[in-house]
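Task: sequence design from structure.
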């Protein structure tokens, strides 16, 4: 008898790709994937354990899903991903409700493990965690969970940076890249299924290729992807500022398919904080990278992420960061409060900042960015933007919702569209007629 399984993915897009690989493998093994938790005989949660809020969310979801063992059809609860990879047997002892824990190295073997669990006449809790070395290939089919026209493309896994606050290298292992040929093979399959937007992800996309023979670089990969027929948009996330070169910028500027959009997580601008974080490069480098990117790429939209409250962040060092938000004028910005993590160097640094102060600083940054974002968006009024339609909206005057080339899914604002007879996946030309802090409003026009 075929078993029904429901998969829930937490955390970043890289985790989502893992979930899609697991879903396809389970489907190929004869399991039935269901979107309804109440109907599932097996519940699979792919977890995040990057920082404390992510761990708390993972634990809350495990306990919530465990209730289906009494309230629904669920017979087995499986927890995969970063949480078991980081805590192994320790977390297993704390959560007897879970039948099977699988670390990040088991993505490609998930179906095998679950099949064995179901076949066991007397199942006992298992925790399968090995050093993380898994790297998906085009041979790993994915069950795409994003809208049919857009997909994340994981070009590498792991990270060889050693930022003082980060546990990702310990969880995900060293940086390892897929070959250009393998990535293109996957993309050819994606476009046949209707995907038109590729969103490049990795822990550090600028590290792409360093570990491969011949050392192909990110611009080489992007150029090859642009040559694939029916790819419409390519979007670049998770770039490391110290590794961003003019070659990357010229490739973005040259290739029409690459959105003029780059995500550059800088984390901070104070040189001493950057040094304590073990971030390569300093404030001068960061400013130079931003300047060169804008010089080379017309109409560039920049996204960044910041950390406030890192140990040693004095009021004066925070003010530098706050002033930089006004100076740099990022189009999109996310801010995190520093999370003390076991087995990281930052945990033992002097000058720890109180949670109350962290939250206040986060609020100050977001208030400053809201003013910047609103000014930038208002400057776009009357401009012509290509927009990808995502569906119906709940605003009567703008009945459709989508994203322009300046907006990545889920993390940025959206574009509300006034038009007729539009469908999800359509690309339309819009004149921007209004704007607010985060969103744009446009009317369709003929090309």
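Answer:
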């Amino acid at each position: 008898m075929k078993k029904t399984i429901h998969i829930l993915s937490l955390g970043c897009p890289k985790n989502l790709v893992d979930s899609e690989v697991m879903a396809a493998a389970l489907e190929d093994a004869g399991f039935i994937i269901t979107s309804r938790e109440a109907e599932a005989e097996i519940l699979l949660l792919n977890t995040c354990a990057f920082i404390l809020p992510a761990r708390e969310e993972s634990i809350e979801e495990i306990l919530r899903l465990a209730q289906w063992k009494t309230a629904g059809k669920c017979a087995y609860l499986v927890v995969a991903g970063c949480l078991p990879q980081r805590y192994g047997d320790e977390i297993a002892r704390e959560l007897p409700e879970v039948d099977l824990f699988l670390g990040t190295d088991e993505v490609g073997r998930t179906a095998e493990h679950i099949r064995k669990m179901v076949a066991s006449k007397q199942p006992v809790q298992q925790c399968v965690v090995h050093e993380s070395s898994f790297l998906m290939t085009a041979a790993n089919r994915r069950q795409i969970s994003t809208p049919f026209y857009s997909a994340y493309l994981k070009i590498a896994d792991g990270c060889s940076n050693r930022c003082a606050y980060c546990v990702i290298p310990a969880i995900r292992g060293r940086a390892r890249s897929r070959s250009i040929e393998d990535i293109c093979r996957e993309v050819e399959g994606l476009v046949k299924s209707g995907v038109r937007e590729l969103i490049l992800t990795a822990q550090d996309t600028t590290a792409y290729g360093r570990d491969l023979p011949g050392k192909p670089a990110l611009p080489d990969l992007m150029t090859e992807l642009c040559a694939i027929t029916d790819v419409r948009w390519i979007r670049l996330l998770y770039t490391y500022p110290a590794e961003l070169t003019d070659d990357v910028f010229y490739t973005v500027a040259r290739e029409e398919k690459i959105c003029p959009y780059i995500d550059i997580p800088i984390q901070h601008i104070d040189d001493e904080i950057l040094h304590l974080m073990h971030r390569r490069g300093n404030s001068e480098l960061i400013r130079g990278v931003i300047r060169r990117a804008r010089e080379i790429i017309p109409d560039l939209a920049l996204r960044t992420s910041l950390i406030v409250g890192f140990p040693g962040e004095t009021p004066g060092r925070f003010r530098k960061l706050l002033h930089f938000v006004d100076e740099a004028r990022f189009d999109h910005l996310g801010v995190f409060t520093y999370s003390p993590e076991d087995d990281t160097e930052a945990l033992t640094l002097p000058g720890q900042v109180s949670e109350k102060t962290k939250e206040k600083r986060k609020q100050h940054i977001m208030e400053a960015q809201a003013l910047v974002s609103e000014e930038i968006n208002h400057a776009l009024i009357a401009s012509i933007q290509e927009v990808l339609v995502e569906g119906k909206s709940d605003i009567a005057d703008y009945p459709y919702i989508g994203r322009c080339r300046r907006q990545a899914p889920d993390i940025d604002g959206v574009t509300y569209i006034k038009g007729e007879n539009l469908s999800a996946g359509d690309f339309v030309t819009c004149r921007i007629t209004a704007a607010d802090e985060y969103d744009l409003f446009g009317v369709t026009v003929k090309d």
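The mean pLDDT is 95.
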